[in-house]
Amino acid sequence: VECVFCPECGSRIWHQSSVFSETLTVKGGSLDEAVDLSEAVHIWTSRRVPGVVIPEGAKQFDEEPV
To answer: pTM of the predicted model, to two decimals?
Structure first.
């Protein structure tokens, strides 16, 4: 897994697997502005931050999908 971290605080910004290179996982907490998440796949929704709204009909998993 290739990870990119913030040089100021060390938080992970995104990561990408060499096995699934077409998928880039962006950490929602790293975003400064709202984005259209209607096509996003949402994982670990059982632990989402209060106030995060997942669009109706969006693909989602309570934990890591298998």
So the answer is: 0.51
